[in-house]
Structures are given as structure tokens and as C-alpha cells.
Amino acid sequence: MKVMILGATGLLGKALMREGSGDEVTGLSSRDVDIRNAQQVREVLEKARPEWIVLAAAYTDVDGCESHQDLAFAVNRDGPLNVAKAAKQIGAKLIFLSSDYVFDGKNTVPYEIDDTRNPQSIYGRSKAEAELGLLEVLPECCIARTSWLFGRGGKCFPETILKLAATRPTLDVVNDQRGCPTYTVDLARAIAELCRRGASGIVHVTNAGDCTWFDFAREIVKSAGLATDVLPVSSQQMARPAPRPAYSVLSPASLQRYEIVMPAWRDALQRYLGS
Ligand SMILES: NC(=O)c1ccc[n+]([C@@H]2O[C@H](COP(=O)([O-])OP(=O)(O)OC[C@H]3O[C@@H](n4cnc5c(N)ncnc54)[C@H](OP(=O)(O)O)[C@@H]3O)[C@@H](O)[C@H]2O)c1
Which helix (H) or strand (E) holds 231? Predict the structure, then answer.
């Protein structure tokens, strides 16, 4: 497959670049192409003519999106539409990375792909609007929603917890947000498989199982053999600019249709810590 990765310098992008052996993979950063610039996007894609475009480029600072709304919508909604239009012109297939934050978190059972979007944050809104726009411009595209990414090559939750735990006797971590931690290595592998299988429509792709951030932090500290006490606190006690869904577990049913089975997040965490 001839694959182009947009957002190749990001957490997921780096894993995608490592995954693509056997394929002809090109990866671009925002320096190579700014997805907000429709003409630049068109020129780059017309020149490269990939069969598949994996769109992992985004403005992912969820709190930053609240204070930089124009930037959030320009990169996360308008950018993907520029890419979709260019993809359509050259006949390329597109897989777009979206987020669990398109949901409001009021569910008590895992979200299915056709559950109603009701984002609570600007980041979530920008992703939800991108999804709707993409389905109009390129109805056959694939939208891969994922959540709680961790991996090598960028800032992520386990890395932050390990740094803090190394210097503090206790750590406060929120215990009222539940989701699915997802290892970039496993996600990259699943994305490559989705491309091979010609995936289309919305798919939920996360590691198996779910937990709260508190559970996740406790597992990280325990696995690293650290003595730090992890203490459960509420989101209210740790107020942040962007509201987060209380429950954003994504159902794996859509992925199972492609016969792709994701490893459990605890197993993924052990592999990450050992890497
Ligand atoms: N991280 C998570 O927990 C999470 C959860 C759910 C969904 N997702 C989605 O998964 C995807 C990958 O996330 P990530 O955590 O790997 O992101 P990331 O580490 O923040 O990387 C973002 C990437 O996007 C590129 N980029 C930013 N603005 C751009 C622009 N205007 N034009 C072109 N490229 C631009 C960056 O390039 P530079 O290096 O040049 O800046 C970088 O390669 C995103 O779509 C994100 O929304 C992430």
C-alpha cells in the first residue's frame, strides 16, 4: 500500500511510521503541510498520490482548545475537510482519527458508533463537526474514534505519572472519569489492518477494558515498583478549563466486524513500560 500519514511527528504518527513496514509510507508534519491551507494540501497530495491517507494531524491540547477556539476549529474541523476534498480529487481513501470526546459521557454502557454525538468541550465539538463534514464530502471515508492515547515519543499520562511519582509521596488522580487507555503501538497496528481491509464508516478503536484515571495511575505506579500513594479525587477538585466526559468507554463491536481484536490495556501498559 502507498500510505501518507499526516501528523507523522505526533504520538500516534510516530507509531504509525514504525508500523508501516512492507508498505510505502510517507509521513508529514505541520512544517511539510499545514492542513489549514487547502491549496497546499491539494498540491502535496496531488504530487504524492497515496492510496491511503491516515489523518492523525490535530490540535490535541484539549484545555488549550477552550482558549484558542479559532485554532481548534481551523485545525480539527476545517483541516480535515481540506484533506477530504483533496483525497476525493485524487481518488485516495481516507482514515480520520477522531475522539471519545464527541460524546457527552452520560452513558453507563459503552458507546456504539451510532450513538448521538453531544460534545461538551471545544475540542470535542471540533472533532464532531469534522466527522459530520467528512461524511458529507467523502461518505466512504473511515472515521476511527479512539481514546486516552499513550506511547513513546511524546507527552502522555503514564510518562507524567512516573515523573511525578518519582518525586512525590502522594499523587491525587481523578476517579470519576472512565475510559479506555490505548497504546499507540496497538492502535497503529489496527489502523494498518483497517487500511488493508478497505475500512469505511465509523469504527471504535481502543485497547480492551476500561478504567478511571485513578485506576490507570495506580497500575502505572504499581508496575513501576514505586511506593507513591495514589489518592482518588473528583473532577471538581481538579478543575480544568475543558469539561471531560465522565464515561467515554467505546464499544469494540464495530472493530470486531473487521475481525480485529485489541489487547487489554493492562497488557498494553506492561509492553509500554518495558519498551
Ligand atoms: N492523544 C489522545 O489521547 C487522543 C485521544 C483521542 C483521539 N486522539 C486523536 O488521535 C490523533 C493523534 O493524536 P496524537 O496524540 O498523536 O496527536 P499529537 O501528538 O498532538 O500530534 C499532533 C500532530 O498533528 C500535527 N499538526 C498539528 N497541527 C497541524 C496543522 N495545522 N497541519 C498539519 N499538521 C498539524 C503535528 O505536527 P507538528 O509536530 O509539526 O506540530 C503532529 O504531528 C488526533 O487526531 C487526535 O485528535 C488523540
Answer: strand 229-233
Residue 216 cell numbers, joined: 490507570
For 125, list phi and psi in degrees, rounded to 5. Answer: -65, -40
Tell whether ligand 1 has an atom less than 6 A from the beta carbon of residue 148. Answer: yes
> Among all chains, which residue has been given the C-alpha cell 510505502?
24
Cβ of 111 less than 6 Å from ligand 1: no
- Spell out the per-residue pLDDT of the chain, length 275, in tens: 999 999 999 999 999 999 977 889 999 999 999 999 999 999 999 999 999 999 999 999 999 999 999 999 999 999 999 999 999 999 999 999 999 999 999 999 999 999 999 999 999 999 999 999 999 999 999 999 999 999 999 999 999 999 999 999 999 999 999 999 999 999 999 999 999 999 999 999 999 999 999 999 999 999 999 999 999 999 999 999 999 999 999 999 999 999 999 999 999 999 999 99
- Give this prediction's pTM: 0.98
Number of other CB atoms surrounding residue 119 within 10 Å: 20
Q: Is 161 exposed, middle or buried (0-12, 13-18, 19+ CB in 10 A)?
A: buried
| Contact criterion met (CB below 8 Å) for 179 and 208 | no
A 10 A CB-CB count for 174 gives 19
Residue 11, ligand 1, Cβ within 6 A:
yes
Which of the listed residues 28, 60, 82 should we mutate to test ligand 1's pocket, taking the one with most ligand atoms within 8 A of CB? 60
Kindly report each contact of residues 113-120 with a partner whose C-beta sits within 8 Å and lies 24 or more positions away, as own/partner: 113/145, 113/201, 113/202, 113/203, 113/204, 113/251, 113/253, 113/254, 114/202, 120/243, 120/244, 120/245
